[in-house]
Specification:
Helix content is 78%, strand content 0%.
């Protein structure tokens, strides 16, 4: 979609393009922009609402102990067995 937005954006700035192709470029550009917006919205929803601890991991690279237990229990057990501690929420 990003490549399509770039390509149609370039086409929209050319003066020598036929009006039929220009109309198509504008329409395709709009459709792709809506798809990208839907994708960004869906990812935001998944990171904030569905998996609340995931956004913290994306931003600063850390997650809480409860998130680790819920999503990676085997990794937590392995880390505990190796004596690696983590902050408790």
């Amino acid at each position: 979609a990003g490549f399509g937005l770039t390509a149609t954006g370039i086409l929209m700035n050319w003066d020598c393009i036929a009006p039929t192709w220009l109309s198509f470029a504008y329409t395709l550009h709009d459709v792709l922009a809506v798809l990208v917006l839907c994708g960004v919205t869906a990812h935001f929803y998944l990171a904030v609402i569905v998996n609340p601890g995931a956004l913290r991991g994306i931003i600063d690279g850390t997650v809480g102990a409860s998130w680790i237990r819920e999503h990676h229990s085997r990794w937590e057990a392995k880390a505990a067995g190796a004596g690696i501690s983590h902050d408790v929420e």
